Each structure stands twice: as structure tokens, then as C-alpha cells.
Amino acid sequence: MDWLVAACVGFFYMGGVSALNDVFDLERDKVNHPNRPLTRGDLSLRHYVMGLVIAPVVISLLLLLITLAPARGLLVVGILCLIEVMHLVYCLHPNLGMAGFGRQLLLTVGPMLLVLVGGLGHGLVTSRLILCAVSIGLFFGSGIILKDLSDIPGDQKSGLVTLPIHWGRNLAVKVSCFGQLVATSLGYTYLILVRASVSVFGWMTLSLVMSLTGTMTLLHRKQRYWGPGMLMAYTSQFIFELALILSNKQ
Fold first, then answer.
1. What are the contacts of 209-216 at 24+ separation with CB within 8 A?
2. Measuring CA to CA, which residue among 139, 222, 147 is closest to residue 187?
3. pLDDT mean by block of 10 residues, the chain; 250 residues
4. What's the gap between Cα 209 and its chain centre?
5. How many whole angstroms separate alpha carbon 92 and alpha carbon 83?
6. Burial class of 201 by CB neighbour count within 10 A (0 to 12, 13 to 18, 19+)
7. pTM of the model
């Protein structure tokens, strides 16, 4: 039943975080991304919240509680709720301090906790799993800075404090690249510890190259949210995680 637990967590995270984020960012997205279905008015806000936020979250939480042992299920649900509280703080407070780093910190810690949910679901958290969680969280938190690059107009209008707005595009990109390099170094360390094959190292290297290429593409010219640079950077996240998963399937 492991696949069901993973699917439930995925539904919760996509429904509770990504879709709800669109609701909070509705006014900003009218400037940044006017062609999205919600900003165009193709979907009513009520139907969007009921169908894409509330329903996936409720279904996933109920299935988790049914699938997992009671104590373990409550622990997993508690961590997911903690992630969502962090997300609400991220959405509701325009300035979380540290010149924009406060917002990025929440986006880094969230995926770390999400990875640890897997270990807790099996009743086991090891030092290697923690290393895996930190590398994924840092890679995601550093890479997602690119989203703020494409959202500058609407974010400035609403008073948000992000790294690109406070520090400028060039420094924000340098911070993003540095974080991605550190995350990949931690990922390589994990692969060495589990004695992964050379091909797995290749997948992780590919993810870094794709992410850095997407970063530099977005630095020099404004792209659509799902433009080539952004799409490449987002895809690199999945490849990075794929490398870590493949290292445990050998």
C-alpha cells in the first residue's frame, strides 16, 4: 500500500499548497500571469477552492488515516498540517524578515519535512534520510527563487519582500546557483554513502545542469511562467529526486 500513501501525500501537497497558493496570489497573478484559468475568470473562486483545494486535501487525509496505523497516521497528518501552516504564513505575511530569506526558508523546510514523512510512514528515520531531505529541500528552496524572478511586477505592486526585489536579479540568481550547488554536493554525498551507480550520478548532474541553465536563461530576459527556462528548472527538480530514488532501487 506504499503507493497509496505516496499518492495521498502528493494530493495533499498539490491541493493544499499549489492550488491554495493560486488563491492567495490571485491579485498578483492578474499582473504576473493573466492567462491562467483562475485569473481569466474561467473558473469561479468558489469552485476552484472546493474542487482543487478542499476536496484533494480532505480525501488524502482520510485515506492516510485509514491506510496507516493510527499513531503513525496521526503523526504524518500532523506534519502535513505543519507544512500547510508554514505555507499560510508564507502567503499571508508579505515580509517574513531577513531581506527575503525568511520566505525562502519556509519553502526549503517544507520539502524537507515532506521527505521525512516517508520515513515516519515506515516508522524509521535515519541519518541518510535526513541527508536526503536536506538536499532535496535546499535544491527546491534555491531553485524556486526563479519563480520570484518572473513574478517581480506583481510582487512589487502588492508589497512582497522577495530576494529579487530586495537584492536585485543578479544577486538573487547567485544565491540560487550557490544553493543548488550545495544541494547537489549533499546529494552526491548521499549517493556515495549508498554506493550508487555511475548512471545515477549522471542523472543528478543532469538535474544541476538543467537547473543552472534555466536560471541563466531567466536572468537575462523575462520569460513566461511556463517558458523554456522555467520549465527546464522545474523539470530538474523531478530528475534530482529521481536520482535519489534510483540509488535505492539498485
1. 210/235, 210/236, 210/239, 211/139, 211/143, 211/180, 211/236, 211/237, 211/240, 212/177, 212/180, 214/146, 215/143, 215/146, 215/173, 215/176, 215/177, 215/180, 216/173
2. 139
3. 71 76 81 80 86 85 81 81 84 80 86 80 78 92 82 77 84 90 95 91 94 79 63 87 80
4. 19
5. 14
6. middle
7. 0.78
